[in-house]
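Summary for the steering committee. One of the milestones for this cycle was to obtain a three-dimensional model of the protein with heme C bound, which we needed before selecting residues for the alanine scan. The sequence and ligand used are listed below.
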Amino acid sequence: MSHLQSFSTTRRLPWTTVVLLAGVMAVVWSPKANADTAQLQTLLQRNNCTACHLIDKRKYGPNLNEVAGRYAGQAGAVAMLATKIRAGGSGVWGEDMMPPQPNVSEADARTLAELILALKP
Ligand code: HEC
């Protein structure tokens, strides 16, 4: 009996290893975008951007995935968008006007710009 038990233990080991590895890989490989998207979502809600913007759908303002696509790889895009987030404006995505958002701190505006540009459309 005892040798049977040790046999079944060794047979079980690979499974445990696989499950463990899968867990580790899920944590290590889960796209960083997920964590960032959660942070972006929180900031968008806190600053009332969600009244007009969704990450993956057009609402009153442009879909933020599309914003990321438009400026992908452009130097200075973070600073430009951070400024626009606080100043508002129109004419880039149509005639609709984004009103100024003076209550958004400069730090939040910059983080928002970075996180929006980090979206993978
Ligand atoms: C009242 C509606 C409204 C609110 C609130 C709003 N936006 Fe906008 N947003 C717009 C519109 C409309 C545009 C398109 C402006 C344009 O075409 O230039 C826009 C454009 C943008 C763009 C793209 C700018 C560009 O030049 O391509 C970003 C980024 C953005 N908004 C982020 C934000 C963030 C972050 C917030 C919250 C702090 C926010 N918006 C709040 C309506 C809004």
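Key point for the committee: The chain has two domains: 1-30, 32-117.
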